[in-house]
Design brief:
The protein is mainly α. About 70% of the residues lie in helices and about 0% in strands. The chain has 2 domains: about 375 residues, no CATH class; about 150 residues, Alpha Horseshoe (Serine Threonine Protein Phosphatase 5, Tetratricopeptide repeat), CATH 1.25.40.10. It contains 30 helices and no strands. Helix 2 runs parallel beside helix 8, helix 3 packs antiparallel against helix 22 and helix 22 runs antiparallel to helix 23.
Length: about 625
């Protein structure tokens, strides 16, 4: 049992010619020593004075990203995290270019750069380029998300010495804050809408907005601290206990097999101390079960393979079908709806009740359907060489998060942390390859890529400043957007939100809602018509920002119908059904137009399709009966 779960030096170096790992431990659980890292081990026992250019930044960023939260905005865990995520997109540009320049990391660096270039082209050529770049509102997994993930990996891979400690404690602090919030949510049941737990106050979500994301973060944290607990149980006993309590309070089920694997690796590699670590985490889960009720037990007993995996398998099938129509570049980063919705069959539409998946619920499928075969090829060119060389507890963090993301959606507050940890896990191997040749390559590199050069610092500063500007306007825009969600449709706030965030369709849609509200309360035919025209213009703008969303075209059709334009309304509804053939509002509205035009057979067909998705309303049932009677006669 001599091999370990790692040491204080995460992802330590492997000397040239040395075989990584051991027969008894997987690569993430072992950490072969090297002479180069021997001196660094002493420094890594504390923060020390030798801090590199990214140490403090990485520590603070890793701690803040998963807890960034503002209760004053509509969705308190999205735009704050997006703004923080953007900082890594800017800070990681120079390290990413350096990763591709150096001979020792050229394969993984070029793979990452190639993936980003393919993703950028895919986004610009996609159905909605602004969504391809920014991602959907409340999801954000567009091209900038992948740029931040790539930057996080590159920055992590460039960390040396004491900087690794900053990354470690940053990740731990973020996980601890979320775990404490989870306990607060389940034990004290806060009444604040922003702070209360998920799903009727029964599932803790911490500061992440969804329990599946908290589950991924806590699993990664448990794998990360395993070494600390085994080496210093008196100092670190609380960590697996706290994380176990919070993990159970998510009431999610995916963590169970992943946690058992972590326990097995800990016991095999560390013997009794691994058993102690496992017992502490298990005791935490038991305490959480007792303190948080039996939500997890009821979910496990009531869950079935069909409800748990059936919908996901069908989604992945539709993603592969969609890939046939855009095989090389995909549908665009973050545009899973555009890549899957047109190819959904009736049974799946019925199972979804007319809703749509906005994420592939598998990061490999997500890459494939959104960036195509070219994107996946470059992604694997980066992923596979990096995975072969990654070592230490940081790799455990990355693998635990990745395991959850094989069946759950990506998240801007968790996925970049996994890429950061993955990069740190590779950093030791890269350090061992820095020889005289590497130094010569460093001297021959452009000034903007040399470590510590004025050009590289200036470039990074400009990129971070641009990220700050974009993130700042985003926060201001979301604050104004939140004002419109308070029940009063305030035109100045809606206009300002639309100007500050012109890339998301929600802000222009809010203007449409405002003018619809004005139409409903206004008096006088001329005023009403002007309000409807303004609402229609706002919805057309919304459709131009996200033309794959079937609901937007339905709103355009509704405005045309209210304006007495049945023909344009029918065109809008058909456009909606082209994007998603089983969208219930468009099926019902188009059938109503066909009834008014005495197109009885077409109306009957549409009502039958609608009835296969969801029950007809009394009005729709009456019109369906009338249409069938005319067809029969």
């Amino acid at each position: 049992m001599s091999s370990t779960l790692g040491s204080d030096v995460a992802g330590s170096a492997v000397a040239p010619g040395e075989v990584a790992g051991s027969a008894s431990a997987p690569s993430w659980a072992s950490e072969p020593p090297s002479q180069r890292e021997a001196a660094a081990r002493t420094a890594l026992t504390g923060f020390g004075r030798q801090v590199g250019p990214y140490g403090i930044f990485v520590g603070c960023w890793a701690a803040v990203l998963p807890v960034a939260f503002l209760s004053t905005i509509d969705y308190p865990s999205f735009t704050p995290k997006y703004a923080v995520m953007l900082l890594m997109a800017g800070a990681g540009l120079v390290p990413l270019a350096r990763l591709a320049w150096r001979r020792s990391s050229r394969w993984m660096g070029c793979g990452l750069v190639g993936f980003l270039l393919v993703g950028l082209v895919s986004a610009l050529l996609s159905q909605s380029p602004n969504i391809g770049i920014m991602g959907l509102y409340r999801w954000g997994s567009g091209w900038l998300f992948w740029l931040a993930c790539a930057g996080a990996f590159a920055v992590g891979a460039s960390l040396r010495g004491t900087d690794v400690q900053w990354a470690f404690y940053g990740l731990v602090v973020g996980a601890v804050a979320n775990a404490l919030m989870a306990v607060y949510q389940i034990v004290l049941h806060p009444t604040s809408e922003a702070l209360r737990a998920y799903a009727g106050n029964t599932q803790a979500d911490g500061f992440l907005g969804n329990p599946v994301h908290l589950e991924a973060l806590l699993l990664g944290a448990i794998a990360l601290v395993a070494t600390k607990v085994c080496d210093s149980p008196r100092r670190w006993w609380w960590a697996p206990l706290l994380f176990g309590v919070a993990l159970e309070m998510t009431s999610e089920r995916v963590f169970i097999p992943i946690l058992l694997v972590i326990f097995a690796v800990a016991i095999v590699t560390r013997g009794r101390r691994g058993l102690l670590f496992s017992a502490l985490a298990g005791a935490g889960c038991l305490i959480g079960y007792v303190g948080g009720g039996s939500a997890l037990g009821s979910r496990v007993s009531s869950g079935t393979a069909e409800t748990t995996f059936g919908l996901r398998f069908q989604l992945w099938h539709d993603a592969l079908v969609g890939l046939v129509h855009h095989p090389f570049l995909g549908s665009g980063p973050g545009e899973v709806i555009a890549g899957t919705a047109p190819y959904v069959d009736r049974s799946f539409g019925h199972a979804l009740d007319g809703r749509l998946f906005t994420d592939a619920h598998n990061f490999i499928v997500e890459v494939l359907v959104t960036t195509g075969l070219l994107g996946l090829a470059f992604f694997l060119v980066w992923l596979l060489p990096a995975a072969r060389r990654a070592r230490g507890p940081f790799l455990g963090f990355a693998l635990a998060v990745a395991a959850v993301k094989l069946v759950e959606p990506l998240n801007i507050g968790v996925a970049p942390l996994a890429f950061l940890a993955f990069g740190v896990a590779v950093a030791g191997w890269l350090a061992s390859r820095e020889s005289r040749t590497g130094a010569e390559l460093e001297r021959s590199a452009p000034a903007a890529l040399r470590e510590g050069s004025v050009s590289s610092r200036l470039l990074s500063a400009v990129a971070v400043a641009l990220a700050l500007a974009l993130g700042g306007t985003m926060l201001l825009g979301d604050y104004q957007y939140s004002k419109t969600q308070l029940g009063l449709q305030q035109l100045p706030a809606a206009n300002e939100a639309n100007e500050l965030m012109p890339y998301w369709p929600e802000t222009s849609a809010e203007l449409g809602f405002y003018w619809r509200y004005e139409y409903a309360i206004s008096h006088g035919t001329a005023v009403k018509r002007a309000d409807l025209e303004a609402a229609r213009r706002a919805y057309v703008t919304t459709a131009s920002r996200d033309s794959a969303d079937p609901s937007v075209w339905w709103f355009v059709g509704q405005m045309d119908q209210l304006l007495g334009r049945s023909g344009p309304a029918a065109v809008a509804y058909r456009h909606s059904l082209t994007d998603y053939p089983w969208y219930p509002p468009s099926l019902g509205s188009l059938a109503g137009i066909d009834v008014g035009a005495h197109h009885w057979a077409a109306a009957v067909r549409l009502y039958r399709e609608l009835a296969a998705i969801q029950p007809l309303s009394p009005t729709q049932q009456a019109l369906f009966t009338e249409a069938r009677a005319h067809v029969a006669s």
